[in-house]
Amino acid sequence: MQDIRKALILAPHTDDGELTCGATISRMLREGVQVYYVAFSSCEESLPKGFAAGALVRELYRATASLGIKQENVQVLDFKVRHFEDHRQDILESMVKISKEIDPDIVFSPSIHDIHQDHVTIGTECMRAFKKKTILQYEVPWNNYTFDNQLFVVVNETDVLNKINAVSCYDSQAGRDYTSPEFIRGLLLTHGVQIGEKYAEVFEMPRMIVREGLT
Fold first, then answer.
1. Which residues pair with 195 in a beta bridge?
2. Which strands make up the sheet holding 151-155, listed edge to edge?
3. Which of 139, 161, 162, 210 has its CA at a distance of 20 to 30 angstroms from the CA of residue 188?
């Protein structure tokens, strides 16, 4: 990814980053980009029966490690799942702090068209906190009534497998339609067909900042 040194993934919940841009994360890491991952909730209230407390956080660390993200670059915050809207200011202040600490070149967040209340809160506050950065908003097909395929990131078979393997680290989420390898590969194939490539991930692009390289 040319001219990108640091990338920040904003995931409302554990697994959102891998599900939505895992192949792009894989490509960025292959190309030497430093990738940082922040999940805003451990989602304890959503943990299925039979799983011990903290299971999703442990799965997150396994998943991000499988992609190649350094453990010290992964944070999990403690906002209560499905109640982000009640804590918008605290979330914004967390993002501003993260921005100062990491100073990313590019930030990935949910789309502001995402109908999940936590996702849209993260997407909206990202637009405020990172308005001086390039922002790409990722696709969550099961939550998006509408989504503009504005930017395509071409990925390869290794990236596809890395994404599938990362998602498979979430034992607590096994059985969901959107975690199946068939769905993951099929969506990447679909977007690849749209641009004449084999595989691609798509993003909305509310802000692109080019500081170098136009000439």
1. none
2. 74-76, 34-39, 6-11, 106-110, 134-138, 199-207, 151-155
3. 210
Can you tell me the distance from the alpha carbon of 10 to that of 126, in angstroms, rounded to the nearest whole number?
Answer: 8
CA distance 12 to 119: 6
User: Which tokens go with 70?
Assistant: 């350094």
202 in Cβ contact with 139 (< 8 Å): yes
2 SS3 class: coil
Q: Shortest CA distance to 21 belongs to which of 134, 155, 122? A: 155
Q: What is the dihedral of CA 33, 43, 141, 183, to 10 degrees?
A: 80
pLDDT string in tens for the chain (215-residue length): 568 999 999 999 999 999 999 999 999 999 999 999 999 999 999 899 999 999 999 999 999 999 999 999 999 999 999 999 999 999 999 999 999 999 999 999 999 999 999 999 999 999 999 999 999 999 999 999 999 999 999 999 999 999 999 999 999 999 999 999 999 999 999 999 999 999 999 999 999 998 877 66
CA dist 178 and 180 (Å) reads 6
